[in-house]
Amino acid sequence: MTEGVAQAVLDLHAAAALVGAVGEAWWISLIKAFVxxxxxMLVFSYLTLAERKVMGRMQLRYxxxxxxxxxxxxxxxxxxxxxxxxxxRPTDAVxxxxxxxxxxxxxTALTTFSVIPWGPGWExxxxxxxxxxADVPIALVFIFAIGSLGxxxxxxxxxxxxxxxxxxxxxxxxxxxVSYEVSxxxxxxxxxxxxxxxxxPEIVAAQGRDIWYIIPQFVGxxxxxxxxxxxxxxxPFDLPEAEQELVAGYHTEYGGMRFGLFSLAEYINLxxxxxxxxTLFLGGWHGPEWFGGVSGPIWFLIKLCALLFIFIWIRTTVxxxxxxxxxxxGWKVLLPVAIxxxxxxxxxxxxx
Amino acid sequence: xxxxxxxxxxxxxxxxxxxxxxxxLEYPEVKKTLYPRFRGRHMxxxxxxxxxxxxGCSLCAAACPSDCIRVVAAENTAEDRVSAGERYARxxxxxxxxxxxxxxxxxxxxxxxxxxxxxxELSEYSRDDLIYTKDTxxxxxxxxxxxxxxxxxxxxxxxxxxxx
Lengths: 352, 164
Fold this sequence. Notes:
Order of helices and strands of chain A: HHHHEEHHHHHHHH
Strand content of chain A: under 5%
Number of helices of chain B: 5
Structural class of chain B: alpha+beta
Helix content of chain B: 10-25%
Oligomer: heterodimer
Radius of gyration of chain B: 23 Å
Number of helices of chain A: 12
Shape of chain A: globular
Helix content of chain A: 55-70%
Number of strands of chain B: 5
């Protein structure tokens, strides 16, 4: 018994060494995790507002402007509305899974951001504070693994709610996410080959040393961006919900805050994907050299806002693809380009 | 324009629209002017001498396709003269939650006692409050919506306004 506990403690230490909390007190990581999760929530809530505002402006509307000055309290109004709605469930739903799946989706979405570096690290009051919550040496694999786990939330949610439309919606979602995940994972191979590491802080450091990878890896960036659009189910690949033409999709039978958790997962995935694009291709928290003096997190935030704006901009501009076009684009265009990009990069990296 | 450039042009169009002024009318503060013959909620009218025009003939109730008007007539007496005719409407109710604002009652009325006004903000918290009685219908409506200049639209003044 005692031996087992001791072994478990040893394993825990090994795991702690693996996630690289070395040189940093555990409670600092805890505080950072708490702060980051809450910041993510804040960014998420204001992303919904910004999306509605920017889309409204592009369509010659105002967007929400009633709750508070310029509508700044709208996210909170929405949250309160969702929380106070009735938590119903279909009579024949598999209740445990039905309740669990929104949590799977939002939990996995929130977890992935923990490995994304947003600052160079500081020395505060004799304590080392790193610019990320956890430094996993295989951070990229970790992100894709957790991202694939998130798909379970969608599949199980659609299946357990005992509705054929939900089931069809979850099939649609899962087919799309699975097929685009391949291109997404392959498109980052070029970056991994150039940096020679799977660890995100090291990739950022490598970009700080020579060049932002968007320039040598422009094709990879394009594939990553398009596959990411499909992976987070954003327009023009938003077939999982396609609110104008289909029943909502896997979350048809969900209401109140459970539905809110699904939409939270979707938006947080979008933020994480933007963070990943920044980390891999846009120099992470590094600013341009001629523009010194601004600290890392600020640069990270500026780049994040710019990318999120581009996502919203695409949503207003481009019409939705048909499902067969989506599949054809994923398998016949993105995947070959991603493979070609990886192969060419590998040859060039070896050659130079 | 070939395909990738036309898509890029589309991005330019959406971006330019951010800087244009929205065309939204912010409704409760800004109201669109109504056309003079807009059919809002009903009004009952009186003659200039104060007598009601309605004689309780129930033709409006008969003409109503959604059956939302209820009229109960009573005889006028010498000491209690309400309308100009032989009888008057003792009860006159319109259930506005059923009314479809078609204006047939207006057409059916032989004395132009009922017309459709311009008021359209009729929300209530209770369904019972949507049943308008004679008192409310006879009152001068609180003018809440701006009405476009009648001269701009070639709409002749209705009979009940010119001739009483």
